[in-house]
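Lecture 7 notes: from sequence to structure.

We start with a single chain of 99 residues. Read the sequence below before looking at the structure.
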Amino acid sequence: MTHFRMSDETTQPVPAPAPRPLPVPAPASVDAWVRARRTLMWALLSTVLATACAGLLAALPSVEWTADWWRALALKVAVDVLTAVCAYVGRHVVPPPTT
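Now the structure, written as tokens:
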């Protein structure tokens, strides 16, 4: 296809720009690793925020930082890691549809 540029004296054909190639999707293993890392980072961020809230509660005089608090924090981190592992494995078992 040719585009025309108007000038005062003549009309000169100008070639159309070349189309850009479509992006190539990353291999499944790379995509799974990126997805698992992203899931783990978001999950750990939620853990940090939950810990900050717990720390603010612990600052109150009536709340004590006991072994139960540490167990709850450890359980939350374990759930975060398990979620990331499930995201990694799930990407390999059920890959997203290609369109």
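The CA atoms of residues 26 and 83 lie 22 Å apart. Keep this in mind for problem set 3.
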